[in-house]
Amino acid sequence: MSAFLTAGAGPYVLTHSVGCLPRNAREALEAGYLEPWARGGGDAWPDWLRGIDDFRAALAGLFGGGVSGYCPQSNLSSGLSKLLAALPTSPRRVLLAAGESFPSLGFVMTQSARLGFTTRFLPRDPPPDDPAGWSAALTDDVRAVLVTHVHSNSGRVAPVAEIARLCAERGIFRIVDVAQSAGILPLSFPSLGAPAVLGSCVKWLCGGPGAGFLWLRDDVIDSLEPTDVGWFSHENPFEMDIRSFRYARDARRFWGGTPSVASFVVATAGLRTICDLGVANILAYNRRLIDAFRAGLEPRWRARLPAYAHGGTLCVPLGADQPAVARALSAAHVSFDSRADVIRLSFHACNAAEDAVTVACAWNGAKT
Prior knowledge:
Blueprint: E1 4-5, E2 21-22, H1 25-40, H2 45-63, E3 70-73, H3 76-86, E4 94-98, H4 103-111, E5 118-122, H5 131-137, E6 142-148, H6 160-169, E7 173-177, E8 196-200, E9 212-216, H7 218-221, H8 262-277, H9 279-296, H10 299-302, E10 313-317, H11 322-331, E11 337-339, E12 342-346, H12 355-364
Parallel strand pairs: 4-5, 4-6, 6-7, 7-8
Antiparallel strand pairs: 1-2, 3-9, 8-9, 10-12, 11-12
Protein backbone atom coordinates (compact mmCIF):
# COMPACT_ATOMS: atom_id res chain seq x y z
CA MET A 1 0.00 0.00 0.00
CA SER A 2 1.25 3.48 -0.86
CA ALA A 3 2.31 5.71 2.00
CA PHE A 4 0.12 8.45 0.48
CA LEU A 5 -3.52 9.18 -0.25
CA THR A 6 -3.58 10.17 -3.91
CA ALA A 7 -5.96 12.88 -5.06
CA GLY A 8 -7.96 12.66 -8.29
CA ALA A 9 -9.19 9.86 -10.55
CA GLY A 10 -6.03 9.62 -12.65
CA PRO A 11 -2.27 10.03 -12.22
CA TYR A 12 -1.29 12.75 -9.74
CA VAL A 13 1.78 14.53 -11.16
CA LEU A 14 1.36 17.76 -9.24
CA THR A 15 3.76 17.26 -6.32
CA HIS A 16 5.72 20.33 -7.43
CA SER A 17 2.63 22.31 -6.35
CA VAL A 18 1.16 20.34 -3.42
CA GLY A 19 2.45 16.97 -2.28
CA CYS A 20 -0.02 14.17 -1.58
CA LEU A 21 -1.35 13.63 1.93
CA PRO A 22 0.66 11.02 3.87
CA ARG A 23 -1.48 8.25 5.35
CA ASN A 24 -0.05 8.92 8.80
CA ALA A 25 -1.03 12.61 8.78
CA ARG A 26 -4.56 12.25 10.19
CA GLU A 27 -3.38 10.15 13.09
CA ALA A 28 -0.54 12.60 13.74
CA LEU A 29 -2.94 15.55 13.73
CA GLU A 30 -5.27 13.82 16.17
CA ALA A 31 -2.52 12.66 18.52
CA GLY A 32 -0.30 15.74 18.38
CA TYR A 33 -2.82 18.56 18.13
CA LEU A 34 -6.50 17.73 18.59
CA GLU A 35 -6.30 15.22 21.42
CA PRO A 36 -4.05 17.38 23.67
CA TRP A 37 -6.41 20.31 23.03
CA ALA A 38 -9.50 18.25 23.90
CA ARG A 39 -7.83 16.81 26.98
CA GLY A 40 -6.01 19.84 28.29
CA GLY A 41 -7.42 23.03 26.83
CA GLY A 42 -4.91 25.72 27.69
CA ASP A 43 -2.66 23.07 29.22
CA ALA A 44 -2.09 21.61 25.75
CA TRP A 45 0.86 23.92 25.14
CA PRO A 46 3.59 21.56 26.44
CA ASP A 47 2.37 18.86 24.04
CA TRP A 48 2.02 21.33 21.20
CA LEU A 49 5.51 22.74 21.67
CA ARG A 50 6.93 19.23 21.79
CA GLY A 51 5.26 18.73 18.43
CA ILE A 52 7.12 21.72 17.00
CA ASP A 53 10.36 20.45 18.55
CA ASP A 54 9.69 17.18 16.70
CA PHE A 55 9.30 19.19 13.48
CA ARG A 56 12.68 20.84 13.95
CA ALA A 57 14.30 17.51 14.82
CA ALA A 58 12.82 15.88 11.71
CA LEU A 59 14.25 18.67 9.55
CA ALA A 60 17.67 18.24 11.13
CA GLY A 61 17.47 14.50 10.51
CA LEU A 62 16.78 15.03 6.83
CA PHE A 63 19.00 18.00 6.04
CA GLY A 64 21.78 17.96 8.62
CA GLY A 65 23.05 20.50 11.09
CA GLY A 66 21.92 20.80 14.69
CA VAL A 67 18.30 21.34 15.69
CA SER A 68 19.32 24.79 17.00
CA GLY A 69 19.74 26.02 13.42
CA TYR A 70 16.09 25.45 12.48
CA CYS A 71 13.24 27.88 13.04
CA PRO A 72 9.62 27.32 11.95
CA GLN A 73 8.19 29.87 9.53
CA SER A 74 4.75 30.20 7.99
CA ASN A 75 6.27 30.39 4.50
CA LEU A 76 9.40 31.39 2.58
CA SER A 77 8.28 34.97 2.00
CA SER A 78 7.93 35.61 5.72
CA GLY A 79 11.33 34.09 6.39
CA LEU A 80 13.01 36.14 3.67
CA SER A 81 11.42 39.36 4.88
CA LYS A 82 12.71 38.72 8.40
CA LEU A 83 16.18 37.81 7.14
CA LEU A 84 16.64 40.91 5.01
CA ALA A 85 15.61 43.20 7.87
CA ALA A 86 18.03 41.39 10.20
CA LEU A 87 21.18 41.76 8.08
CA PRO A 88 23.95 43.76 9.74
CA THR A 89 24.45 47.28 8.42
CA SER A 90 26.63 47.53 5.33
CA PRO A 91 27.33 50.16 2.65
CA ARG A 92 26.38 47.51 0.10
CA ARG A 93 22.67 47.92 -0.66
CA VAL A 94 21.88 45.68 -3.67
CA LEU A 95 19.92 42.43 -3.44
CA LEU A 96 20.38 39.99 -6.30
CA ALA A 97 18.26 37.09 -7.57
CA ALA A 98 17.51 35.30 -10.82
CA GLY A 99 14.59 36.75 -12.74
CA GLU A 100 13.07 33.26 -12.78
CA SER A 101 12.85 33.13 -8.97
CA PHE A 102 9.42 32.55 -7.43
CA PRO A 103 7.55 35.89 -7.71
CA SER A 104 6.55 35.99 -4.04
CA LEU A 105 10.20 36.18 -3.04
CA GLY A 106 10.84 38.85 -5.65
CA PHE A 107 7.99 40.88 -4.17
CA VAL A 108 9.66 40.71 -0.74
CA MET A 109 12.96 41.85 -2.22
CA THR A 110 11.53 44.81 -4.13
CA GLN A 111 9.53 45.97 -1.12
CA SER A 112 12.76 45.97 0.88
CA ALA A 113 13.43 49.33 -0.79
CA ARG A 114 11.88 50.66 2.43
CA LEU A 115 14.95 49.25 4.19
CA GLY A 116 17.24 51.06 1.77
CA PHE A 117 17.89 48.11 -0.55
CA THR A 118 17.78 48.04 -4.34
CA THR A 119 16.81 44.81 -6.04
CA ARG A 120 18.50 43.58 -9.19
CA PHE A 121 17.44 40.52 -11.22
CA LEU A 122 19.71 38.50 -13.47
CA PRO A 123 18.81 38.60 -17.15
CA ARG A 124 17.30 35.45 -18.68
CA ASP A 125 20.38 34.88 -20.82
CA PRO A 126 22.52 33.20 -19.64
CA PRO A 127 20.09 30.94 -17.71
CA PRO A 128 20.28 30.73 -13.91
CA ASP A 129 22.16 27.41 -13.99
CA ASP A 130 25.15 29.10 -15.67
CA PRO A 131 27.72 30.22 -13.05
CA ALA A 132 29.22 32.75 -15.49
CA GLY A 133 26.06 34.84 -15.40
CA TRP A 134 26.13 34.93 -11.62
CA SER A 135 29.83 35.76 -11.51
CA ALA A 136 29.34 38.77 -13.77
CA ALA A 137 26.45 40.03 -11.64
CA LEU A 138 28.23 39.74 -8.27
CA THR A 139 29.49 43.31 -8.22
CA ASP A 140 30.93 45.19 -5.24
CA ASP A 141 27.57 46.74 -4.31
CA VAL A 142 25.74 43.42 -3.78
CA ARG A 143 24.83 42.80 -0.14
CA ALA A 144 22.87 39.55 -0.38
CA VAL A 145 21.98 36.98 -3.01
CA LEU A 146 18.92 34.76 -3.16
CA VAL A 147 19.75 31.54 -5.01
CA THR A 148 16.83 29.37 -6.07
CA HIS A 149 18.08 25.79 -6.09
CA VAL A 150 15.45 24.44 -8.51
CA HIS A 151 13.44 26.90 -10.59
CA SER A 152 9.72 26.22 -10.64
CA ASN A 153 9.03 27.38 -14.20
CA SER A 154 11.83 25.45 -15.90
CA GLY A 155 13.09 22.85 -13.43
CA ARG A 156 16.65 24.10 -13.94
CA VAL A 157 19.05 23.30 -11.10
CA ALA A 158 21.31 26.14 -10.04
CA PRO A 159 24.88 25.19 -9.01
CA VAL A 160 24.32 26.42 -5.48
CA ALA A 161 27.69 25.46 -4.00
CA GLU A 162 29.59 27.16 -6.83
CA ILE A 163 27.49 30.33 -6.64
CA ALA A 164 27.89 30.35 -2.85
CA ARG A 165 31.66 30.06 -3.24
CA LEU A 166 31.74 33.04 -5.59
CA CYS A 167 29.65 35.05 -3.12
CA ALA A 168 31.80 34.08 -0.14
CA GLU A 169 34.94 35.20 -1.96
CA ARG A 170 33.31 38.63 -2.42
CA GLY A 171 31.80 38.96 1.06
CA ILE A 172 28.19 38.56 -0.10
CA PHE A 173 25.52 37.03 2.15
CA ARG A 174 23.91 33.92 0.63
CA ILE A 175 20.30 32.76 1.01
CA VAL A 176 19.20 29.54 -0.70
CA ASP A 177 15.59 28.69 -1.60
CA VAL A 178 15.06 24.90 -1.51
CA ALA A 179 11.27 24.88 -1.93
CA GLN A 180 11.47 22.85 -5.15
CA SER A 181 14.43 20.64 -4.21
CA ALA A 182 13.87 19.63 -0.57
CA GLY A 183 12.49 16.10 -0.56
CA ILE A 184 13.46 15.19 -4.14
CA LEU A 185 17.18 16.05 -4.35
CA PRO A 186 19.42 14.77 -1.53
CA LEU A 187 20.51 17.82 0.46
CA SER A 188 22.88 18.68 3.28
CA PHE A 189 22.30 22.28 4.27
CA PRO A 190 25.73 22.71 5.89
CA SER A 191 27.31 21.58 2.59
CA LEU A 192 25.56 24.19 0.44
CA GLY A 193 28.02 26.91 1.39
CA ALA A 194 25.28 29.32 2.43
CA PRO A 195 24.61 30.70 5.91
CA ALA A 196 20.83 30.75 5.39
CA VAL A 197 18.35 28.35 3.77
CA LEU A 198 14.61 28.82 3.29
CA GLY A 199 12.22 25.96 2.57
CA SER A 200 8.66 24.74 2.65
CA CYS A 201 7.02 21.38 3.35
CA VAL A 202 4.08 21.85 0.98
CA LYS A 203 5.68 20.29 -2.11
CA TRP A 204 8.07 17.32 -2.26
CA LEU A 205 8.09 16.97 1.55
CA CYS A 206 4.33 16.27 1.50
CA GLY A 207 3.68 18.31 4.63
CA GLY A 208 0.94 20.67 3.53
CA PRO A 209 0.85 24.49 3.56
CA GLY A 210 1.82 26.66 6.50
CA ALA A 211 4.94 24.73 7.50
CA GLY A 212 7.91 26.65 6.21
CA PHE A 213 11.31 26.77 7.81
CA LEU A 214 14.50 28.77 8.10
CA TRP A 215 17.90 27.19 8.65
CA LEU A 216 20.83 29.29 9.85
CA ARG A 217 24.46 28.32 10.16
CA ASP A 218 25.55 28.56 13.78
CA ASP A 219 28.29 31.11 13.15
CA VAL A 220 25.90 33.77 11.77
CA ILE A 221 23.04 33.55 14.26
CA ASP A 222 24.43 36.06 16.76
CA SER A 223 24.99 38.65 14.01
CA LEU A 224 21.36 38.56 12.82
CA GLU A 225 18.87 40.62 14.82
CA PRO A 226 15.35 40.45 13.36
CA THR A 227 12.88 43.26 13.97
CA ASP A 228 9.82 41.11 13.27
CA VAL A 229 9.80 39.37 16.63
CA GLY A 230 7.37 38.11 19.25
CA TRP A 231 7.43 36.28 22.53
CA PHE A 232 8.70 33.09 20.93
CA SER A 233 11.72 35.02 19.62
CA HIS A 234 12.67 35.61 23.27
CA GLU A 235 15.40 33.70 25.07
CA ASN A 236 12.72 32.79 27.65
CA PRO A 237 9.24 33.16 26.09
CA PHE A 238 7.57 32.67 29.45
CA GLU A 239 9.45 35.37 31.36
CA MET A 240 6.58 37.80 30.67
CA ASP A 241 8.47 41.02 31.37
CA ILE A 242 7.46 43.60 28.75
CA ARG A 243 10.58 45.67 29.50
CA SER A 244 13.02 42.82 28.94
CA PHE A 245 13.68 41.32 25.52
CA ARG A 246 16.65 39.09 24.77
CA TYR A 247 17.00 37.28 21.48
CA ALA A 248 16.81 33.51 21.61
CA ARG A 249 20.32 32.15 21.35
CA ASP A 250 19.50 29.95 18.38
CA ALA A 251 17.58 30.33 15.11
CA ARG A 252 14.31 30.62 17.03
CA ARG A 253 15.00 34.34 17.41
CA PHE A 254 13.25 34.46 14.00
CA TRP A 255 10.15 32.68 15.26
CA GLY A 256 7.82 35.54 16.24
CA GLY A 257 4.54 35.48 18.12
CA THR A 258 2.18 32.68 19.10
CA PRO A 259 2.94 29.86 16.65
CA SER A 260 0.60 27.82 14.56
CA VAL A 261 0.78 24.21 15.72
CA ALA A 262 -1.42 22.04 13.49
CA SER A 263 0.52 22.77 10.30
CA PHE A 264 3.82 21.70 11.86
CA VAL A 265 2.36 18.55 13.40
CA VAL A 266 1.02 17.51 9.99
CA ALA A 267 4.29 18.46 8.29
CA THR A 268 6.24 16.27 10.69
CA ALA A 269 4.21 13.29 9.49
CA GLY A 270 5.28 14.13 5.95
CA LEU A 271 8.92 14.58 6.93
CA ARG A 272 8.97 11.21 8.66
CA THR A 273 7.41 9.55 5.63
CA ILE A 274 10.02 11.05 3.31
CA CYS A 275 12.79 10.07 5.72
CA ASP A 276 11.52 6.48 5.87
CA LEU A 277 11.34 6.25 2.07
CA GLY A 278 14.73 7.93 1.60
CA VAL A 279 15.25 10.97 -0.62
CA ALA A 280 17.80 9.15 -2.77
CA ASN A 281 15.27 6.35 -3.35
CA ILE A 282 12.54 8.86 -4.23
CA LEU A 283 14.85 10.56 -6.73
CA ALA A 284 15.79 7.25 -8.33
CA TYR A 285 12.10 6.35 -8.65
CA ASN A 286 11.34 9.78 -10.12
CA ARG A 287 14.03 9.22 -12.75
CA ARG A 288 12.70 5.77 -13.62
CA LEU A 289 9.22 7.15 -14.18
CA ILE A 290 10.54 10.07 -16.21
CA ASP A 291 12.45 7.60 -18.39
CA ALA A 292 9.29 5.52 -18.84
CA PHE A 293 7.31 8.65 -19.72
CA ARG A 294 9.96 9.70 -22.22
CA ALA A 295 10.06 6.26 -23.80
CA GLY A 296 6.27 6.24 -24.16
CA LEU A 297 6.10 9.54 -26.02
CA GLU A 298 5.96 9.77 -29.76
CA PRO A 299 9.22 11.17 -31.22
CA ARG A 300 7.62 14.51 -32.10
CA TRP A 301 6.82 15.05 -28.43
CA ARG A 302 9.96 13.47 -27.04
CA ALA A 303 12.03 16.09 -28.84
CA ARG A 304 10.27 18.83 -26.84
CA LEU A 305 11.46 17.58 -23.44
CA PRO A 306 14.17 19.66 -21.72
CA ALA A 307 17.75 18.55 -22.38
CA TYR A 308 19.28 20.36 -19.40
CA ALA A 309 19.65 18.98 -15.87
CA HIS A 310 16.42 19.43 -13.91
CA GLY A 311 15.02 18.74 -10.48
CA GLY A 312 12.08 16.42 -10.00
CA THR A 313 9.72 18.36 -12.27
CA LEU A 314 9.56 18.12 -16.04
CA CYS A 315 8.75 21.58 -17.39
CA VAL A 316 7.90 21.22 -21.08
CA PRO A 317 7.50 24.37 -23.22
CA LEU A 318 4.93 23.69 -25.95
CA GLY A 319 4.11 27.04 -27.49
CA ALA A 320 0.87 26.92 -29.47
CA ASP A 321 0.49 23.18 -28.77
CA GLN A 322 0.01 23.69 -25.03
CA PRO A 323 -3.82 23.95 -25.05
CA ALA A 324 -4.20 20.70 -27.02
CA VAL A 325 -1.89 18.76 -24.70
CA ALA A 326 -3.57 20.25 -21.63
CA ARG A 327 -6.99 19.16 -22.93
CA ALA A 328 -5.73 15.63 -23.59
CA LEU A 329 -4.23 15.32 -20.10
CA SER A 330 -7.37 16.69 -18.47
CA ALA A 331 -9.55 14.25 -20.43
CA ALA A 332 -7.42 11.41 -19.00
CA HIS A 333 -7.94 12.80 -15.47
CA VAL A 334 -4.24 13.61 -15.06
CA SER A 335 -3.55 16.10 -12.25
CA PHE A 336 -0.97 18.55 -13.64
CA ASP A 337 -0.57 22.28 -14.13
CA SER A 338 0.75 24.87 -16.58
CA ARG A 339 2.69 28.11 -16.43
CA ALA A 340 1.98 30.03 -19.64
CA ASP A 341 2.87 27.56 -22.44
CA VAL A 342 4.85 25.27 -20.10
CA ILE A 343 3.24 22.07 -18.82
CA ARG A 344 4.68 20.82 -15.53
CA LEU A 345 4.72 17.16 -14.45
CA SER A 346 6.26 15.69 -11.30
CA PHE A 347 6.52 11.99 -10.52
CA HIS A 348 6.89 11.10 -6.84
CA ALA A 349 6.66 8.11 -4.52
CA CYS A 350 2.86 8.55 -4.54
CA ASN A 351 2.77 7.47 -8.18
CA ALA A 352 2.28 3.94 -9.47
CA ALA A 353 4.81 2.77 -12.05
CA GLU A 354 2.12 2.67 -14.75
CA ASP A 355 1.27 6.34 -14.23
CA ALA A 356 4.17 7.34 -16.48
CA VAL A 357 2.79 5.30 -19.38
CA THR A 358 -0.74 6.60 -18.77
CA VAL A 359 0.45 10.21 -18.94
CA ALA A 360 2.48 9.53 -22.09
CA CYS A 361 -0.45 7.87 -23.84
CA ALA A 362 -2.72 10.80 -22.99
CA TRP A 363 -0.07 13.23 -24.23
CA ASN A 364 0.28 11.33 -27.53
CA GLY A 365 -3.48 11.66 -28.05
CA ALA A 366 -3.36 15.45 -28.16
CA LYS A 367 -5.07 16.75 -31.28
CA THR A 368 -2.88 19.59 -32.59
